[in-house]
Amino acid sequence: MRNKYTFLFSFLFLSIVTFGQNNTSNTGEWTNTNEIPEDSTAATFDSLMFSKSSEMLDEEMYWSIIEKSIMGADNQEDQELFLIAEIEKLTPAEMIGFRLRTDKLLFDSYNPELWCAAYIVSGGCSDGGFEYFRCWLISQGKELFYNVKAKPDSLINQVVEGKESYEFEGFWYVAMNAFKNTTGEDLYSFIDYDKFVTNDENYPLLKFNWNVDEPQTMEKICPNLFKNLWK
After folding, report:
1. In terms of pTM, does the model score above 0.85?
2. Are the C-beta atoms of residues 84 and 77 closer than 8 Å to each other?
3. How many CB atoms lie within 10 A of CB 141?
4. How far apart, in whole angstroms, are the C-alpha atoms of residue 80 and residue 66?
5. Is 147 within 8 Å of 154 (Cβ atoms)?
6. 89-143, pLDDT tens digit by residue?
């Protein structure tokens, strides 16, 4: 009889231990399965299921990000890094939208009067230089961008003695870099260019109303800039 009870006790003990081990193991598997990845955007992005986009980011949201970058950085390099970090917080579609909004602003500001202002303030301005000048202008915020776009000569108020460059090449690529960092993909591959046509491939043919060989034509467009900076 004693051996019988001893056997039953041992059996019950082993059953309890085994159940506890299995339960602990299963609980660990469930926890691991349901962990949220640190970078949920990258983890959930499926390039095969993602349709190309032609939708710009909401303009107020766009300018809000720009304003944050102005307040959060002391120089252009820091502003570029700040912008990339902020854009990485957006969804893939919104990152594309940021780039499309930038392209639209560049398209809308592609005019000879603004190019004249850029030429004077920079002491010369190529096609690429004009692109990077407008990127710099956008990076200065909504109010300044629209004011200078409407009246290029008002750029004189932003001139800093000793400042050699009014360009921001890296600004053109902040959305592309953020998209690459979070998805591992090329942003350009997900732009619907059939629907989004306000880009550099479709800039209008400009009819210049100023000529470097005739400085008075530049003075007529930007009298203050010309008076203070043209040599």
Report:
1. no
2. no
3. 16
4. 10
5. yes
6. 999 999 999 999 999 999 999 999 999 999 999 999 999 999 999 999 999 999 9
35 to each of 22, 27, 88, 181, how far by Cα in Å? 20, 13, 21, 22
Phi then psi for 211, rounded to 5 degrees? -145, 130
- Start-to-end C-alpha separation, the chain: 115
